[in-house]
Protein backbone atom coordinates (compact mmCIF):
# COMPACT_ATOMS: atom_id res chain seq x y z
CA UNK A 1 0.00 0.00 0.00
CA UNK A 2 2.90 2.37 0.75
CA UNK A 3 4.08 2.09 -2.90
CA UNK A 4 0.62 3.05 -4.12
CA UNK A 5 0.40 6.09 -1.87
CA UNK A 6 3.94 7.14 -2.76
CA UNK A 7 3.07 7.26 -6.43
CA UNK A 8 -0.07 9.22 -5.69
CA UNK A 9 1.77 11.67 -3.51
CA UNK A 10 4.48 12.28 -6.09
CA UNK A 11 1.82 12.93 -8.70
CA UNK A 12 -0.56 15.02 -6.66
CA UNK A 13 0.86 16.58 -3.54
CA UNK A 14 3.32 19.16 -4.76
CA UNK A 15 0.67 21.31 -6.40
CA UNK A 16 0.74 24.99 -5.47
CA UNK A 17 -0.75 28.06 -7.12
CA UNK A 18 2.05 30.19 -5.65
CA UNK A 19 5.25 30.52 -7.64
CA UNK A 20 7.21 28.18 -5.35
CA UNK A 21 6.69 26.48 -2.02
CA UNK A 22 9.11 27.81 0.59
CA UNK A 23 11.58 25.35 2.06
CA UNK A 24 11.59 24.83 5.82
CA UNK A 25 13.77 27.35 7.60
CA UNK A 26 15.11 27.95 11.09
CA UNK A 27 12.48 29.04 13.59
CA UNK A 28 9.46 28.08 11.48
CA UNK A 29 6.21 27.88 13.43
CA UNK A 30 3.59 25.84 11.61
CA UNK A 31 0.03 26.41 12.86
CA UNK A 32 -2.48 23.79 11.73
CA UNK A 33 -6.04 25.16 11.73
CA UNK A 34 -8.79 22.59 11.51
CA UNK A 35 -11.44 20.39 13.12
CA UNK A 36 -11.28 17.09 15.03
CA UNK A 37 -9.10 15.47 12.36
CA UNK A 38 -6.53 18.16 13.13
CA UNK A 39 -7.19 18.21 16.87
CA UNK A 40 -6.42 14.48 17.12
CA UNK A 41 -2.81 15.37 16.35
CA UNK A 42 -2.03 12.30 14.27
CA UNK A 43 -0.71 13.96 11.14
CA UNK A 44 1.18 16.62 13.08
CA UNK A 45 2.97 13.89 15.05
CA UNK A 46 4.15 12.33 11.80
CA UNK A 47 5.24 15.72 10.48
CA UNK A 48 7.16 16.34 13.70
CA UNK A 49 8.81 12.95 13.37
CA UNK A 50 10.11 13.81 9.90
CA UNK A 51 11.24 17.26 10.98
CA UNK A 52 13.01 15.92 14.08
CA UNK A 53 14.78 13.27 12.04
CA UNK A 54 16.02 15.39 9.14
CA UNK A 55 15.83 19.01 10.32
CA UNK A 56 16.68 18.86 14.04
CA UNK A 57 18.71 22.09 14.04
CA UNK A 58 15.96 24.27 12.60
CA UNK A 59 13.89 24.39 15.80
CA UNK A 60 10.62 23.99 13.92
CA UNK A 61 7.46 24.15 16.04
CA UNK A 62 4.09 22.69 15.06
CA UNK A 63 1.07 24.24 16.82
CA UNK A 64 -2.21 22.33 16.81
CA UNK A 65 -5.17 24.68 16.29
CA UNK A 66 -7.82 22.04 15.67
CA UNK A 67 -11.13 21.86 17.56
CA UNK A 68 -13.59 19.02 17.11
CA UNK A 69 -16.84 19.81 15.32
CA UNK A 70 -15.70 23.18 14.00
CA UNK A 71 -16.82 24.56 10.66
CA UNK A 72 -15.94 27.66 8.66
CA UNK A 73 -17.84 30.10 10.96
CA UNK A 74 -16.11 28.69 14.03
CA UNK A 75 -12.64 28.87 12.50
CA UNK A 76 -13.21 32.39 11.20
CA UNK A 77 -14.31 33.50 14.68
CA UNK A 78 -11.19 32.17 16.42
CA UNK A 79 -8.64 32.89 13.69
CA UNK A 80 -7.07 35.83 15.53
CA UNK A 81 -6.65 34.07 18.88
CA UNK A 82 -5.76 30.58 17.69
CA UNK A 83 -3.67 31.38 14.62
CA UNK A 84 -2.67 35.01 14.06
CA UNK A 85 -1.69 35.64 17.68
CA UNK A 86 0.61 32.58 17.52
CA UNK A 87 2.77 34.49 14.99
CA UNK A 88 3.02 31.65 12.48
CA UNK A 89 5.43 31.48 9.56
CA UNK A 90 3.36 28.71 7.94
CA UNK A 91 -0.40 28.09 8.27
CA UNK A 92 -2.32 25.07 7.04
CA UNK A 93 -6.11 25.41 6.81
CA UNK A 94 -8.28 22.28 6.82
CA UNK A 95 -12.02 22.95 6.83
CA UNK A 96 -15.10 21.57 5.10
CA UNK A 97 -15.83 18.06 6.34
CA UNK A 98 -18.17 19.20 9.12
CA UNK A 99 -19.66 21.95 6.93
CA UNK A 100 -20.98 19.22 4.62
CA UNK A 101 -21.30 16.21 6.94
CA UNK A 102 -23.40 18.02 9.56
CA UNK A 103 -25.81 18.99 6.80
CA UNK A 104 -26.88 15.35 6.74
CA UNK A 105 -27.68 15.34 10.47
CA UNK A 106 -31.23 15.43 11.78
CA UNK A 107 -31.76 18.31 12.21
CA UNK A 108 -29.16 19.49 9.67
CA UNK A 109 -26.47 21.89 10.90
CA UNK A 110 -24.16 22.23 7.93
CA UNK A 111 -22.84 25.39 6.30
CA UNK A 112 -24.17 26.58 2.95
CA UNK A 113 -21.61 26.56 0.12
CA UNK A 114 -21.93 30.30 -0.46
CA UNK A 115 -21.28 31.09 3.22
CA UNK A 116 -18.45 28.55 3.32
CA UNK A 117 -16.78 30.12 0.28
CA UNK A 118 -17.12 33.63 1.68
CA UNK A 119 -15.72 32.69 5.09
CA UNK A 120 -12.83 30.63 3.69
CA UNK A 121 -11.92 33.56 1.48
CA UNK A 122 -12.13 35.85 4.51
CA UNK A 123 -9.80 33.53 6.48
CA UNK A 124 -7.20 33.59 3.72
CA UNK A 125 -7.39 37.36 3.26
CA UNK A 126 -7.13 37.99 7.01
CA UNK A 127 -4.07 35.74 7.22
CA UNK A 128 -2.47 37.57 4.32
CA UNK A 129 -3.19 40.96 5.90
CA UNK A 130 -2.21 40.11 9.48
CA UNK A 131 0.72 37.73 8.98
CA UNK A 132 3.59 37.11 6.64
CA UNK A 133 2.95 33.37 6.84
CA UNK A 134 2.91 31.05 3.87
CA UNK A 135 -0.68 29.79 3.60
CA UNK A 136 -1.56 26.23 2.58
CA UNK A 137 -5.21 25.50 1.83
CA UNK A 138 -6.14 21.82 2.13
CA UNK A 139 -9.21 20.41 0.44
CA UNK A 140 -11.48 18.42 2.81
CA UNK A 141 -10.62 14.71 2.87
CA UNK A 142 -13.69 12.43 2.64
CA UNK A 143 -17.00 11.72 4.35
CA UNK A 144 -17.43 7.96 4.54
CA UNK A 145 -15.45 5.67 2.30
CA UNK A 146 -18.34 5.19 -0.14
CA UNK A 147 -16.75 7.49 -2.69
CA UNK A 148 -19.91 8.09 -4.69
CA UNK A 149 -22.10 8.47 -1.62
CA UNK A 150 -24.26 11.62 -1.25
CA UNK A 151 -21.92 13.23 1.31
CA UNK A 152 -18.86 12.91 -0.91
CA UNK A 153 -20.77 14.04 -3.98
CA UNK A 154 -21.80 17.20 -2.14
CA UNK A 155 -18.28 17.63 -0.73
CA UNK A 156 -16.82 17.97 -4.22
CA UNK A 157 -18.30 21.48 -4.64
CA UNK A 158 -16.63 22.56 -1.39
CA UNK A 159 -13.32 21.12 -2.58
CA UNK A 160 -13.70 23.02 -5.83
CA UNK A 161 -14.32 26.20 -3.84
CA UNK A 162 -10.97 25.68 -2.05
CA UNK A 163 -9.21 25.15 -5.38
CA UNK A 164 -10.66 28.41 -6.71
CA UNK A 165 -9.83 30.37 -3.56
CA UNK A 166 -6.22 29.12 -3.66
CA UNK A 167 -5.89 30.11 -7.33
CA UNK A 168 -7.56 33.50 -6.90
CA UNK A 169 -5.64 34.43 -3.74
CA UNK A 170 -2.33 32.95 -4.98
CA UNK A 171 -1.76 30.76 -1.93
CA UNK A 172 -0.44 27.23 -1.72
CA UNK A 173 -2.84 24.38 -2.26
CA UNK A 174 -2.84 20.66 -1.41
CA UNK A 175 -5.60 18.48 -2.86
CA UNK A 176 -6.15 15.97 -0.06
CA UNK A 177 -9.56 15.05 -1.41
CA UNK A 178 -8.06 13.81 -4.68
CA UNK A 179 -5.40 11.81 -2.84
CA UNK A 180 -7.91 10.14 -0.53
CA UNK A 181 -10.30 9.29 -3.34
CA UNK A 182 -7.59 7.78 -5.51
CA UNK A 183 -5.93 5.91 -2.64
CA UNK A 184 -9.24 4.32 -1.65
CA UNK A 185 -10.17 3.51 -5.24
CA UNK A 186 -6.79 1.83 -5.76
CA UNK A 187 -7.38 -0.48 -2.81
CA UNK A 188 -10.85 -1.35 -4.09
CA UNK A 189 -9.51 -2.14 -7.54
CA UNK A 190 -6.57 -3.99 -6.00
CA UNK A 191 -8.79 -6.25 -3.95
CA UNK A 192 -8.01 -4.84 -0.50
CA UNK A 193 -11.52 -4.05 0.82
CA UNK A 194 -10.40 -4.30 4.45
CA UNK A 195 -7.98 -1.39 4.05
CA UNK A 196 -9.37 1.82 5.53
CA UNK A 197 -7.94 5.30 5.86
CA UNK A 198 -10.51 6.23 8.52
CA UNK A 199 -12.06 4.62 11.58
CA UNK A 200 -15.59 5.86 10.94
CA UNK A 201 -15.51 7.38 7.47
CA UNK A 202 -14.18 10.70 8.78
CA UNK A 203 -11.62 10.40 11.58
CA UNK A 204 -8.21 9.15 10.57
CA UNK A 205 -6.53 5.85 11.14
CA UNK A 206 -2.72 5.90 10.90
CA UNK A 207 -2.82 5.45 7.12
CA UNK A 208 -5.01 8.52 6.73
CA UNK A 209 -2.78 10.59 8.97
CA UNK A 210 0.22 9.45 6.94
CA UNK A 211 -1.37 10.71 3.72
CA UNK A 212 -2.20 14.12 5.24
CA UNK A 213 1.26 14.53 6.77
CA UNK A 214 3.00 13.44 3.60
CA UNK A 215 0.85 15.78 1.53
CA UNK A 216 1.76 18.82 3.61
CA UNK A 217 5.44 17.89 3.80
CA UNK A 218 5.61 17.34 0.04
CA UNK A 219 4.07 20.77 -0.48
CA UNK A 220 6.85 22.09 1.77
CA UNK A 221 9.34 20.39 -0.60
CA UNK A 222 10.42 17.75 1.89
CA UNK A 223 11.77 14.85 -0.22
CA UNK A 224 9.52 11.81 -0.33
CA UNK A 225 12.48 9.60 0.62
CA UNK A 226 12.78 11.46 3.93
CA UNK A 227 9.06 11.07 4.58
CA UNK A 228 9.25 7.33 4.02
CA UNK A 229 12.46 6.85 6.00
CA UNK A 230 11.21 8.77 9.03
CA UNK A 231 7.89 6.92 9.16
CA UNK A 232 9.41 3.45 9.14
CA UNK A 233 8.63 1.76 12.45
CA UNK A 234 11.69 1.73 14.67
CA UNK A 235 12.39 -1.26 16.91
CA UNK A 236 13.31 -0.54 20.53
CA UNK A 237 16.73 -1.68 21.68
CA UNK A 238 15.20 -2.94 24.94
CA UNK A 239 11.90 -4.75 24.47
CA UNK A 240 8.97 -4.49 26.87
CA UNK A 241 9.57 -7.94 28.37
CA UNK A 242 12.97 -6.93 29.77
CA UNK A 243 13.15 -7.85 33.46
CA UNK A 244 14.80 -4.51 34.28
CA UNK A 245 11.47 -2.76 33.61
CA UNK A 246 8.94 -2.52 36.43
CA UNK A 247 5.18 -2.55 35.84
CA UNK A 248 2.44 -1.55 38.27
CA UNK A 249 -1.19 -2.30 37.52
CA UNK A 250 -2.74 -4.89 35.27
CA UNK A 251 -0.70 -5.45 32.10
CA UNK A 252 -1.00 -8.15 29.47
CA UNK A 253 2.63 -9.17 29.01
CA UNK A 254 2.07 -12.40 27.08
CA UNK A 255 3.51 -10.81 23.92
CA UNK A 256 5.59 -8.08 25.54
CA UNK A 257 8.73 -9.21 23.72
CA UNK A 258 7.12 -8.86 20.30
CA UNK A 259 4.11 -6.58 20.07
CA UNK A 260 4.42 -4.99 23.53
CA UNK A 261 2.86 -4.86 27.00
CA UNK A 262 -0.81 -3.79 27.00
CA UNK A 263 -2.98 -2.10 29.62
CA UNK A 264 -6.50 -0.68 29.54
CA UNK A 265 -6.51 0.88 33.01
CA UNK A 266 -5.63 4.33 34.29
CA UNK A 267 -3.00 4.26 37.01
CA UNK A 268 -1.03 1.54 35.21
CA UNK A 269 2.63 2.44 35.67
CA UNK A 270 6.02 1.83 34.04
CA UNK A 271 9.25 2.50 35.94
CA UNK A 272 12.72 2.40 34.38
CA UNK A 273 16.16 3.34 35.70
CA UNK A 274 19.12 4.11 33.47
CA UNK A 275 22.70 5.36 33.57
CA UNK A 276 23.49 8.07 31.06
CA UNK A 277 21.91 11.08 29.42
CA UNK A 278 18.67 10.05 27.68
CA UNK A 279 16.28 7.31 26.61
CA UNK A 280 13.43 7.09 24.09
CA UNK A 281 10.21 5.28 24.96
CA UNK A 282 8.33 3.39 22.25
CA UNK A 283 4.55 2.95 22.09
CA UNK A 284 2.22 1.55 19.45
CA UNK A 285 -0.20 4.24 18.27
CA UNK A 286 -1.95 2.59 15.33
CA UNK A 287 -5.00 1.72 17.48
CA UNK A 288 -5.99 5.33 18.05
CA UNK A 289 -8.67 6.24 15.57
CA UNK A 290 -9.48 9.66 16.97
CA UNK A 291 -7.63 10.76 20.07
CA UNK A 292 -4.66 9.56 22.11
CA UNK A 293 -4.88 8.83 25.85
CA UNK A 294 -2.86 10.95 28.26
CA UNK A 295 0.10 9.85 30.37
CA UNK A 296 1.89 11.36 33.33
CA UNK A 297 5.70 11.32 33.07
CA UNK A 298 8.25 12.14 35.75
CA UNK A 299 12.04 12.10 35.46
CA UNK A 300 13.80 11.57 38.79
CA UNK A 301 11.86 13.57 41.39
CA UNK A 302 11.06 16.39 39.00
CA UNK A 303 7.74 17.86 37.95
CA UNK A 304 5.09 15.52 36.59
CA UNK A 305 4.26 16.38 32.96
CA UNK A 306 1.39 15.27 30.73
CA UNK A 307 2.51 13.48 27.55
CA UNK A 308 0.89 11.21 24.98
CA UNK A 309 1.98 7.85 23.63
CA UNK A 310 4.23 8.12 20.59
CA UNK A 311 6.24 5.74 18.46
CA UNK A 312 9.29 7.58 19.75
CA UNK A 313 8.76 9.55 22.97
CA UNK A 314 11.86 11.40 24.15
CA UNK A 315 11.76 11.82 27.93
CA UNK A 316 13.19 15.35 27.85
CA UNK A 317 13.86 18.06 25.30
CA UNK A 318 17.58 18.11 26.13
CA UNK A 319 20.12 15.53 27.33
CA UNK A 320 20.20 14.94 31.09
CA UNK A 321 23.28 14.98 33.30
CA UNK A 322 25.38 11.85 32.76
CA UNK A 323 24.36 9.89 35.87
CA UNK A 324 21.68 7.53 37.13
CA UNK A 325 18.07 8.55 36.44
CA UNK A 326 14.59 7.13 37.04
CA UNK A 327 11.64 7.72 34.70
CA UNK A 328 8.06 6.97 35.73
CA UNK A 329 4.98 6.88 33.49
CA UNK A 330 1.40 6.59 34.75
CA UNK A 331 -1.66 6.23 32.52
CA UNK A 332 -3.70 9.38 33.18
CA UNK A 333 -6.88 9.21 31.08
CA UNK A 334 -8.64 7.47 28.20
CA UNK A 335 -11.57 8.23 25.91
CA UNK A 336 -13.89 6.34 28.20
CA UNK A 337 -16.25 4.91 25.56
CA UNK A 338 -13.59 3.65 23.12
CA UNK A 339 -13.19 -0.13 22.93
CA UNK A 340 -11.25 -1.30 26.00
CA UNK A 341 -12.28 -4.94 26.08
CA UNK A 342 -12.59 -6.67 22.73
CA UNK A 343 -10.13 -6.58 19.86
CA UNK A 344 -9.20 -4.24 18.31
CA UNK A 345 -8.43 -2.37 21.55
CA UNK A 346 -8.70 1.36 20.93
CA UNK A 347 -8.71 2.49 24.57
CA UNK A 348 -5.38 0.92 25.44
CA UNK A 349 -1.73 1.71 25.97
CA UNK A 350 0.76 -0.56 24.21
CA UNK A 351 4.33 -0.12 25.46
CA UNK A 352 6.95 -1.63 23.15
CA UNK A 353 10.18 -0.82 24.96
CA UNK A 354 13.09 1.60 25.32
CA UNK A 355 16.04 2.75 23.23
CA UNK A 356 18.90 4.31 25.24
CA UNK A 357 20.99 7.02 23.62
CA UNK A 358 24.62 6.29 22.83
CA UNK A 359 26.56 5.84 26.05
CA UNK A 360 23.37 5.21 28.06
CA UNK A 361 22.31 1.82 29.40
CA UNK A 362 19.34 0.46 31.32
CA UNK A 363 19.71 -0.48 35.00
CA UNK A 364 17.52 -2.60 37.22
CA UNK A 365 14.44 -0.68 38.34
CA UNK A 366 14.23 0.61 41.92
CA UNK A 367 13.06 -1.89 44.52
CA UNK A 368 9.29 -2.12 44.38
CA UNK A 369 7.09 -1.63 47.48
CA UNK A 370 6.75 -4.72 49.65
CA UNK A 371 2.96 -4.52 49.77
CA UNK A 372 0.44 -4.45 46.90
CA UNK A 373 -3.10 -3.07 47.03
CA UNK A 374 -5.58 -3.77 44.23
CA UNK A 375 -8.54 -1.42 43.75
CA UNK A 376 -11.66 -2.66 41.98
CA UNK A 377 -14.28 -0.15 40.95
CA UNK A 378 -15.84 2.21 38.45
CA UNK A 379 -15.14 5.69 37.07
CA UNK A 380 -14.74 7.11 40.57
CA UNK A 381 -11.98 4.59 41.19
CA UNK A 382 -10.18 5.19 37.90
CA UNK A 383 -10.28 8.97 38.29
CA UNK A 384 -12.77 10.06 35.63
CA UNK A 385 -13.72 13.77 35.65
CA UNK A 386 -11.29 14.56 38.46
CA UNK A 387 -10.11 17.69 36.65
CA UNK A 388 -13.35 18.78 35.04
CA UNK A 389 -14.56 22.29 35.66
CA UNK A 390 -17.37 24.32 34.18
CA UNK A 391 -20.87 23.48 33.03
CA UNK A 392 -21.74 19.92 32.08
CA UNK A 393 -22.41 20.91 28.46
CA UNK A 394 -18.71 21.78 28.18
CA UNK A 395 -17.64 18.23 29.02
CA UNK A 396 -16.92 17.29 25.43
CA UNK A 397 -15.60 13.88 24.54
CA UNK A 398 -12.47 15.50 23.17
CA UNK A 399 -11.68 16.71 26.68
CA UNK A 400 -12.21 13.40 28.45
CA UNK A 401 -8.55 12.21 28.62
CA UNK A 402 -7.61 15.61 30.03
CA UNK A 403 -10.42 15.57 32.63
CA UNK A 404 -9.38 12.15 34.02
CA UNK A 405 -6.45 11.50 36.33
CA UNK A 406 -5.51 7.96 37.30
CA UNK A 407 -2.42 9.10 39.21
CA UNK A 408 -4.17 11.58 41.49
CA UNK A 409 -7.21 9.40 42.16
CA UNK A 410 -7.98 8.38 45.74
CA UNK A 411 -7.12 4.78 44.90
CA UNK A 412 -3.63 5.34 43.51
CA UNK A 413 -2.72 7.92 46.14
CA UNK A 414 -4.01 6.00 49.16
CA UNK A 415 -1.73 3.07 48.30
CA UNK A 416 1.28 5.36 47.95
CA UNK A 417 0.48 7.08 51.25
CA UNK A 418 0.35 3.65 52.89
CA UNK A 419 3.73 2.75 51.40
CA UNK A 420 2.20 0.19 49.03
CA UNK A 421 2.10 -0.37 45.29
CA UNK A 422 -1.27 0.51 43.68
CA UNK A 423 -3.01 -1.68 41.12
CA UNK A 424 -6.05 0.21 39.85
CA UNK A 425 -8.79 -1.63 37.96
CA UNK A 426 -11.56 0.85 37.23
CA UNK A 427 -13.96 1.24 34.31
CA UNK A 428 -16.48 4.03 33.86
CA UNK A 429 -20.12 3.01 34.39
CA UNK A 430 -19.08 -0.42 35.68
CA UNK A 431 -21.41 -2.19 38.09
CA UNK A 432 -22.42 -5.66 39.13
CA UNK A 433 -25.57 -5.36 37.05
CA UNK A 434 -24.32 -3.13 34.23
CA UNK A 435 -21.70 -3.13 31.51
CA UNK A 436 -18.99 -0.49 31.62
CA UNK A 437 -18.06 2.00 28.93
CA UNK A 438 -15.79 0.60 26.25
CA UNK A 439 -17.57 -2.75 26.03
CA UNK A 440 -16.43 -4.01 29.44
CA UNK A 441 -18.78 -6.68 30.90
CA UNK A 442 -20.20 -6.41 34.45
CA UNK A 443 -17.73 -6.58 37.31
CA UNK A 444 -18.26 -10.24 38.18
CA UNK A 445 -17.35 -11.26 34.64
CA UNK A 446 -14.59 -8.73 33.93
CA UNK A 447 -12.68 -9.18 37.20
CA UNK A 448 -10.60 -12.24 36.15
CA UNK A 449 -9.25 -10.55 32.99
CA UNK A 450 -7.06 -7.65 31.94
CA UNK A 451 -9.34 -7.48 28.91
CA UNK A 452 -11.16 -10.10 26.86
CA UNK A 453 -8.93 -13.12 26.32
CA UNK A 454 -6.11 -11.77 28.53
CA UNK A 455 -6.26 -13.60 31.87
CA UNK A 456 -5.24 -11.94 35.11
CA UNK A 457 -1.60 -12.57 36.05
CA UNK A 458 -1.74 -14.29 39.44
CA UNK A 459 2.02 -14.48 39.97
CA UNK A 460 1.94 -11.50 42.36
CA UNK A 461 -1.03 -11.58 44.70
CA UNK A 462 -2.28 -8.39 46.36
CA UNK A 463 -1.96 -8.05 50.11
CA UNK A 464 -5.19 -6.07 50.19
CA UNK A 465 -8.13 -5.59 47.82
CA UNK A 466 -10.33 -2.49 48.04
CA UNK A 467 -13.78 -2.75 46.43
CA UNK A 468 -15.74 0.36 45.48
CA UNK A 469 -18.80 -1.07 43.77
CA UNK A 470 -22.48 -0.14 43.75
CA UNK A 471 -22.70 3.46 42.61
CA UNK A 472 -23.72 2.57 39.06
CA UNK A 473 -26.10 -0.14 40.26
CA UNK A 474 -27.76 2.53 42.41
CA UNK A 475 -31.48 2.62 41.75
CA UNK A 476 -31.03 0.39 38.72
CA UNK A 477 -31.52 -2.83 40.67
CA UNK A 478 -33.19 -3.73 43.95
CA UNK A 479 -31.32 -4.85 47.05
CA UNK A 480 -32.71 -8.35 46.42
CA UNK A 481 -30.84 -8.42 43.10
CA UNK A 482 -27.73 -6.50 44.17
CA UNK A 483 -27.09 -8.53 47.34
CA UNK A 484 -26.54 -11.92 45.67
CA UNK A 485 -24.44 -10.30 42.95
CA UNK A 486 -22.19 -8.63 45.53
CA UNK A 487 -21.90 -11.88 47.46
CA UNK A 488 -20.89 -13.80 44.33
CA UNK A 489 -18.39 -11.05 43.46
CA UNK A 490 -16.84 -11.26 46.91
CA UNK A 491 -16.60 -15.05 46.69
CA UNK A 492 -14.88 -14.84 43.29
CA UNK A 493 -12.32 -12.37 44.60
CA UNK A 494 -11.66 -14.55 47.66
CA UNK A 495 -11.08 -17.65 45.51
CA UNK A 496 -8.69 -15.70 43.29
CA UNK A 497 -6.85 -14.03 46.17
CA UNK A 498 -7.13 -16.50 49.10
CA UNK A 499 -4.78 -14.59 51.45
CA UNK A 500 -5.70 -10.97 50.74
CA UNK A 501 -7.37 -8.62 53.16
CA UNK A 502 -10.58 -7.47 51.40
CA UNK A 503 -12.00 -4.05 52.21
CA UNK A 504 -15.53 -3.37 51.01
CA UNK A 505 -16.10 0.39 50.81
CA UNK A 506 -19.43 2.01 51.34
CA UNK A 507 -19.84 3.79 47.96
CA UNK A 508 -19.23 7.51 48.50
CA UNK A 509 -22.85 8.27 47.65
CA UNK A 510 -24.11 5.48 49.91
CA UNK A 511 -25.65 3.33 47.15
CA UNK A 512 -26.61 -0.13 48.48
CA UNK A 513 -24.45 0.48 51.57
CA UNK A 514 -26.78 -1.46 53.88
CA UNK A 515 -26.69 -4.45 51.54
CA UNK A 516 -22.89 -4.34 51.27
CA UNK A 517 -22.47 -4.17 55.04
CA UNK A 518 -24.82 -7.14 55.44
CA UNK A 519 -22.98 -9.25 52.87
CA UNK A 520 -19.66 -8.54 54.61
CA UNK A 521 -21.13 -9.48 58.01
CA UNK A 522 -22.61 -12.70 56.64
CA UNK A 523 -19.35 -13.70 54.93
CA UNK A 524 -17.88 -14.78 58.30
CA UNK A 525 -14.37 -14.14 57.00
CA UNK A 526 -11.98 -12.40 59.39
CA UNK A 527 -10.07 -10.95 56.44
CA UNK A 528 -13.12 -9.24 54.92
CA UNK A 529 -14.13 -5.89 56.36
CA UNK A 530 -16.61 -3.09 55.71
CA UNK A 531 -15.31 0.49 55.49
CA UNK A 532 -17.93 3.09 56.31
CA UNK A 533 -17.11 6.20 54.24
CA UNK A 534 -19.99 8.26 55.64
CA UNK A 535 -18.88 11.86 56.01
CA UNK A 536 -15.68 11.44 54.00
CA UNK A 537 -16.99 13.43 51.06
CA UNK A 538 -19.18 16.53 50.82
CA UNK A 539 -20.81 16.26 47.35
CA UNK A 540 -21.11 20.04 47.08
CA UNK A 541 -17.44 20.75 47.77
CA UNK A 542 -15.59 17.56 46.88
CA UNK A 543 -17.08 16.44 43.55
CA UNK A 544 -17.25 17.82 40.04
CA UNK A 545 -20.82 16.67 39.41
CA UNK A 546 -22.14 15.42 42.78
CA UNK A 547 -20.71 11.98 41.93
CA UNK A 548 -17.11 12.09 40.67
CA UNK A 549 -14.54 13.27 43.20
CA UNK A 550 -12.54 16.38 42.39
CA UNK A 551 -8.89 16.75 43.36
CA UNK A 552 -9.72 17.80 46.90
CA UNK A 553 -12.21 14.96 47.28
CA UNK A 554 -9.65 12.45 46.04
CA UNK A 555 -7.05 13.84 48.44
CA UNK A 556 -9.37 13.59 51.45
CA UNK A 557 -10.52 10.06 50.58
CA UNK A 558 -6.92 8.96 49.98
CA UNK A 559 -5.78 10.22 53.37
CA UNK A 560 -8.65 8.54 55.22
CA UNK A 561 -8.22 5.24 53.41
CA UNK A 562 -4.41 5.29 53.74
CA UNK A 563 -4.72 5.38 57.52
CA UNK A 564 -6.85 2.23 57.35
CA UNK A 565 -4.53 0.54 54.85
CA UNK A 566 -1.50 1.12 57.03
CA UNK A 567 -3.21 -0.76 59.83
CA UNK A 568 -4.62 -3.47 57.60
CA UNK A 569 -1.33 -4.16 55.85
CA UNK A 570 0.35 -4.61 59.20
CA UNK A 571 -2.26 -6.74 60.96
CA UNK A 572 -5.67 -8.38 60.33
CA UNK A 573 -8.82 -6.28 60.49
Structural class: alpha/beta
Unreliable runs: 1-22
Number of helices: 19
CATH class of the largest domain: Alpha Beta
Number of domains: 3
What does this structure look like?
The protein is an alpha/beta fold. 33% of the residues lie in helices and 19% in strands. The strands form five sheets. Strands 7, 9, 11, 12, 14 and 16 form a six-stranded antiparallel β-sheet that branches. α3 (42-54) packs across α11 and α7 (113-130) runs parallel beside α8. It starts with a helix and ends with a helix.
Describe the secondary structure blueprint for this structure.
Blueprint: H1 2-12, E1 29-34, H2 36-39, H3 42-54, E2 61-66, H4 72-77, H5 79-82, E3 90-94, H6 97-101, H7 113-130, E4 134-138, H8 150-169, E5 172-174, H9 176-189, H10 206-219, H11 224-230, E6 238-239, E7 246-248, E8 261-263, E9 269-276, E10 279-284, E11 294-299, E12 305-307, E13 313-314, E14 323-333, E15 349-356, E16 361-363, E17 372-377, H12 379-382, H13 400-403, H14 410-417, E18 421-426, H15 443-446, E19 449-451, E20 454-455, E21 464-468, H16 479-496, E22 501-505, H17 513-523, E23 528-531, H18 539-542, H19 551-570
Helix pairs in contact: 1-9, 1-10, 3-10, 3-11, 7-8, 14-19, 16-17
Task: For the structure shown, list the relevant keywords.
Jelly Rolls; Rossmann fold; six-stranded antiparallel beta sheet; 19 helices; 573 residues; five-stranded parallel beta sheet; alpha/beta; globular; 3 domains
The gist of it:
By secondary structure, this protein is an alpha/beta fold.
Amino acid sequence: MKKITTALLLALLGASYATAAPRLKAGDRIVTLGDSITQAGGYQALMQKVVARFYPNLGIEIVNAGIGGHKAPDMAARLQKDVIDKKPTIVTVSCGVNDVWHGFYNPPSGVDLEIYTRLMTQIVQQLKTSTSAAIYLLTPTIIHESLRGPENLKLEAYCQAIREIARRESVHFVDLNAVFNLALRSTQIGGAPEFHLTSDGVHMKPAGNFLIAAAILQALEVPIAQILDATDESLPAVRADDTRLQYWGRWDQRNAGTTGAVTVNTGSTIIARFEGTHITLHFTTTQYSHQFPTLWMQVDEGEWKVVRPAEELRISSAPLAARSHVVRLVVKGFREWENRWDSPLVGSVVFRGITPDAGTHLLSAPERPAKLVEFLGDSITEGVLVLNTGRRETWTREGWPQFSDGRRSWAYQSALLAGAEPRTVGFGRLGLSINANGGVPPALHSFPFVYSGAPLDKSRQPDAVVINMGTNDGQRVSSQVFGPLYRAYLETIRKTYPLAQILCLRPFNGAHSTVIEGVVRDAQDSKIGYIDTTGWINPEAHTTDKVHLNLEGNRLAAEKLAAILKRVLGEPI
